Amino acid sequence: MTDKVYYTVEAEDNLICRKCGIPLEKTEAVFEYLDNSFPVELPACPKCGFVYVPEDLALGKVLSVEKVLEDK
Amino acid sequence: MDHFKERSTRDYFQKKLYSLEGLLERENRCIYEEPAFCHAACPLGLDAKKLIGFAEKGNFSEARAMLEHIAPFPRILVYGCEAPCEKVCRMNEVGEGIDIPALERAAMNLGSPKTGRGMLKFKKKQKAAVFGSDLFSLSLAAELARKSYPVSFYVSQADAVSLIKDCAPFLSKDDLAKEATRLEAMDIKIIYSCKLTKELFESEKEDFDIIAAARSFLNAYFPGDIPDSRTLLSPVSKLLSSQNSDPGVLEAVFDARRAGVSADRIAQGLDPGSSRGEEGARESRLFTDMSEAVPSKRVPEPQEGYTREAAMEEAARCIRCKCEECIKHCVFLQETGKYPRLLTREIYNNVDIIMGDHLMNKTINSCSLCGQCTFTCPNGYDMAEICRDARENMVSTTKMALAYHEFALLDMLFSNDEAFLAKPQSGYEECKYVFFPGCQAGAIAPEAVFKAYSDLTGRLEGGVGLINGCCGAIAKWAGRTAIYEECEELLKSELKKLGKPKIIAACPTCKKTLEEMIGAEVKGIWDILNEKGLPEGALEYDRPLIMHDSCSARGDSEMQTAIRKLADSLGCTLKEVPYNGDMTECCGYGGLVSYVNKDLASKMAQSCTKDEDVPYISYCMACRDRFAREGRESMHVLELVYAAPAGNPPDISEKRKNRLNLKRKLLEEVWNEEVIVVNPEYKIVIPEDVSEILDERMILEEDVYDVIGAYHAGGSAVCDEKSGLLTSSLRKGNVTFWLNFTEDETGVYTIKGAYSHRMKVRTRYEV
Q1: What's B687's domain CATH number?
Q2: Do B222 and B352 lie in a common domain?
Q3: What is the predicted ipTM?
Q4: Residue A14 and residue B361: Cβ atoms within 8 Å?
Q5: What is the pLDDT of residue B708?
C-alpha cells in the first residue's frame, strides 16, 4: 500500500464513540470497492475501530468514485 | 451461485455483442442517415436540403460554395440543369414542390465567391489533352485541372466567351462573361482556333497520358467507337468522351465527373472500372411523415431572379425531409440525442471495450425496453433487443455493476421469498385456474388483489389457486439470466404442484413473461371479468378518462380491446390519445429505468400524461403508480372493478409492507392460518420528512430497523456531544447504511437522517 492519502476528514473534538466513551481520532483508513482501494484519513474510535463516514463525504466524493469505478 | 457478488475491475472478459453481419443487418434498418429525396436524385450528389437550409438562413455564400464545389461552371449548371431534384420533392404531394433551381440561381447571384488561394497543390506528372469543345469536354478539362493534371485543351473557338457560348448557349450575356472569366482563371492551357483534325490528334496524343474529346470529335474520327457506359473510355481510340452525342446539361457535367474518375484510374495504371464507389442518382430509402406538412405554393421567381427575402421565404417552405419516427415519442432516444444506428454502434463498441471507461453503460440501462421504436420505425428497428442483449452481455462478462439493478433484484427476490405465496384454493389439492396478480399489484393495491382473488374463487368453478410473486420480468430486464432461470424453476414447480392450472394474470407484463416462460396461453383477469360480468359493488366512473395502454400490451390488440370493453361496462368515457395502443409510451418502470435513471423515468411518465388534464386509467399497476408519483390523477381498472381505491402512491417501504400484509391477510382470512408477527422490543419513529429521504435514497425501513437493531444490541455509534445526535452504521450485503438518530430514556429511537454508500470502509490495521 502506498503512503498516498486520497482524502482527509479531521476528527472534530465533539465526536465521541458512544460505546467506548472516548473521542474519535484522525485514523488511517481505507475505502475498498470492486477490487480497488483508496487510503484515506477518517475519524475513528482508537479503541473499537469504528470508522465514521460523514454524510457529505458518502454522498459526495465516495458516490462519484463509486460511479466511475462501476463503469470501468 | 452468488448473484450479488460485486464485479471486479480486474476481470477482463469479452464477448462480442453481435457478429459483424448481425451488427450491419441491424444498423441498416435505421434510415436516419439516408439522403433526402432531392439529394439522392442528383447524380452530382448536391445536398439540396443543406443548400436550402443555408438559403433559409440567408447564408447564400455557403450555398454558393456548395455549387462551386460540385460543378466547375456552376452558372451553366444552375441555368441549364434539368433538376431531377425538384421532381421528387415531397412537397409536390401536398402543394407545390420547392423551386430548387431558382434557389440555386439565387445562391449564385446573392452569395459571394470564396476568397483565398486555397491549398498549394503540386502538379501531377501525367498530362491530359482534351480535343474539341462541348459542355462535356469543357467540364472535363476543368475537372482535370482541378485534379492538378497539366491540361491542354484544343478548341476551334477564338476566345473564352465564344467557347462558353457554344457550350452553354442558354446563358445570358452577363453570365457568359462571368463563366468565361472563371475559365480563364483556371490552370488550363487552351489552344484556341485549332483545326481539330485526326492528324492533330495523332500527332499530339503521344505526349499525353490521358486523352479525352468532345463526342462530336469522337464520332467524326472514330465512328462506332462507343464509350463504355460506366468508365466512358472508348475501346479503340482510348478517348474519354460523353455517353451520348447530345447530352443534357446535367448529364454532360456528370459524365465529366465520371470521366475524371476514369482519368485518375488510368493515371494510376489501374483498371478504370475498379473501386469507383457509388456514382450517380439513387433511390433514397428515407421515410418522411407528410401528415403534418402544410401545403404551400412557390414564391414566383421573377426574370431577374429572387431577392434575398424571396429566396429565404421559398427556402422556408422546405420541410427538411428526415426520418425521426422513433425519436419523436421516445424520451430515451431524445435524451441520448442519438438515432438508433449511431446508438447501436456506440453500444457495440462499449461492449467491446475490455479496459477503460464504459461510457454507454448508463445509456444501455436507461432504455425502458418497451418496444415502441419497433412499431414507430418504418423498418421495425428494435432498440430494446439491442439494449437487452447488451445488458445480458455485460452481466455474462462481469461488466455490469450491481449498483444499477441490485435494489430491483432484491425486491424481486423479496417478492419470491418473504412475500411469496402459492396455494391451491381452500378445499382443493389441484386447481383448474391460478390467479397471478403480480408483484406490483400486491405492492400498490393490495385490497384490490384480495378482493379479486375472493371474486375469482367465488365465480369460477374447478378451483382457483394463487401464486403471488414476481414473474421474472425484473431479472430479464436486468439481463440476469441466472436469476430469471431460478424464478422459472420456482414458478414451474408451483404450477406443477397446483396441477398445471390455467393462469389468470392481472398484469400485462406478467401475462407476456409467463406466456414466454411456460409456452401456453395466459388469460387476463379482464377476460374473465368480461365473460362473467362485473362483481357486485363495482364503482361506476362517469368522468372522462384517458386509457393508457401498457407497453407490454403492444401488439396485443385482443388485450387492448378487452380492457376497453371492461372500462365501457364500468361506464367509463374513454378519451383516446394519439400515442396509445401499439404506439404507447412507457411510464418509466419498464426496463428498470426508474431504478437506474430517476430523472429520465420521471420524464417518461410526464410524457405519457402530457396530453390532457384528465385522469388516466391503466391496466398496469406500475403505470398507475408512476403517474400518481408525478402528481397525475391515475387509477388501475381493478381499483374500480373491486371498489378498492389504492390512494396515494406507496413509498418503497410501504410497497414491501403492503405485500407482507396482503400475504398475512390472505393466509389468515382465506386459508385460516395463524401468522406470528414478531415486533422488536424497541420503538422507532420515522418522521415524514425522513421517510421522503429514505424513499429518495432507496433506503428501506427494514434497513433502518436493522441498523438500530445492531446498535441496540451493543453496536458502535458516534455521538456528537454538541447536538446529542447519534450516528451508527451497518453493512448489509453490498451497502453500508448510516443513520442519524436520537435515543430517549424510554428507549424510543427517532430517526433524523439516513444515507448509504457501496464502498467498504475499514481502518488500515484491520485485514
Answers
A1: 3.30.2310
A2: no
A3: 0.97
A4: no
A5: 97
Long-range CB contacts (< 8 A, 24+ apart) of B688-694? B690/B751, B690/B752, B690/B753, B690/B754, B691/B651, B691/B653, B692/B651, B693/B753, B693/B754, B694/B651, B694/B652, B694/B653, B694/B754
Give contacts of A17 with chain B, Cβ < 8 Å: 716-719
What are B414's three cell numbers? 423479496
Say whether both B527 and B619 belong to one domain. yes
- Whether B42 and B28 map to the same domain: the answer is no
What pLDDT score was predicted for residue B578? 84
In angstroms, the separation between the Cα of residue B248 and the nearest Cα of chain A is 59
Instruction: Label residue B310 exposed, middle or buried (CB < 10 Å: 0-12, 13-18, 19+).
Output: middle
Ranges of residues in chain B with a pLDDT under 50 are none
pLDDT of amino acid B274: 86
Structural contact between residues B757 and B731, judged by C-beta atoms closer than 8 angstroms: no
pLDDT of residue B311: 97
Last residue of a domain, one of B404, B432, B467: B404
Q: Are B355 and B410 found together in one domain? A: no
Question: Looking at the structure, do residues B309 and B454 belong to the same domain, yes or no?
Answer: no
Question: Is residue B600 one of the residues assigned to a domain?
Answer: yes
**Nearest CA-CA distance, residue A45 and chain B, Å:** 9
Please check whether residue B554 lies inside any domain of the structure.
Answer: yes
With an 8 Å Cβ cutoff, are B765 and A49 in contact?
yes
Judged against a pLDDT cut of 60, whether residue A1 lies above it is answered with no
pLDDT tens digits along A14-54: 999 999 999 999 999 999 999 999 999 999 999 999 999 99
Contacts of B359 in chain A (CB under 8 A): 71
Could you read off the pLDDT of B27-52 as tens digits, one per residue? Answer: 999 999 999 999 999 999 999 999 99
Residues B528 and B442 in one domain: yes
